Amino acid sequence: MSDQPLQHDDANDAGRRNLLALLMKHQRRLFGFTYTLVPNRDDAEDVLQDATRVMWEKFDGFEPGSDFFAWACRVIRYEVMHHRRSHARSRLVFDSDVLESVATDAAAMRDGLDERRAALESCLDKLPEDERRFLMRRYEHDGSVAAAAQLAARSTHAAYKALSRLRRALLDCVRKQMPGEEVYG
Questions:
Q1: pLDDT category, 158, cuts 50, 70, 90?
Q2: Which CATH number fits domain 9-93: 2.60.120.10, 2.60.40.2470, 1.10.1740.10, 1.10.1040.10?
Q3: pTM of the prediction?
Q4: Is 142 exposed, middle or buried (0-12, 13-18, 19+ CB in 10 A)?
Q5: CB-count exposure of residue 80 (10 Å: 0-12, 13-18, 19+)
Q6: For residue 86, what pLDDT is reported?
Q7: Under 8 Å between Cβ of 62 and 73
Q8: How far is residue 174's CA from residue 185's CA, in Å, rounded to a whole number?
Q9: What is the CATH number of domain 112-185?
Q10: How far is CA 50 from the centre of its chain?
């Protein structure tokens, strides 16, 4: 694949900007969906990149106003199948039936996950700023308990206890916001 910029006419500019906005909006969810189907993070990133290229090429076929996430997930599923065929010798490749089952379950769970994510964000907003920063430091990309402990000027042992208390408080808060839903902790 060339590193040359993709060429398209001015009539497609608005559509391409719309695609980019939708990709940015759903970026984490799309990666999460991909990662459920491809157990290796690097492979999941490669598959998502390939799927994004296909979305770019086929965006004219996307029906405005329809469910972009569902459309993108279909594209990702096809790219995962392509990835599976090209990496068939790997021990970590799922059987087609297993892959289809996981993809179907992941798609069915997405609405519930969105509700849980919104409840969690609401609960995080209720935490004092220093506690939220402490918790986020632990769970950011390269975060660790030691890094969170250092940020909060706590011992590692105290950080573990505080994180446990915060996780329990967040779980209780989410459960209160989602009565009747099974929320695992």
A1: very high
A2: 1.10.1740.10
A3: 0.48
A4: exposed
A5: buried
A6: 76
A7: no
A8: 10
A9: 1.10.10
A10: 16
H/E stretch holding 91: none
139 token code pair? 């769970």
* Alpha-carbon torsion (130, 131, 136, 138), positive or negative: positive
CB 68 within 8 A of CB 62: yes
C-alpha distances in angstroms, 108 versus 19, 54, 104, 137, 162?
Answer: 23, 23, 6, 31, 34
Cα angle 62, 63, 65; round to 5: 125
State the Cα–Cα distance between residues 143 and 159, nearest whole angstrom: 13
Name the residue with tokens 């599976």: 84
Closest CA to 183 of 156, 44, 172, 146: 172
The residue assigned the tokens 């998502």 is 48
Domain ranges of the chain: 9-93, 112-185
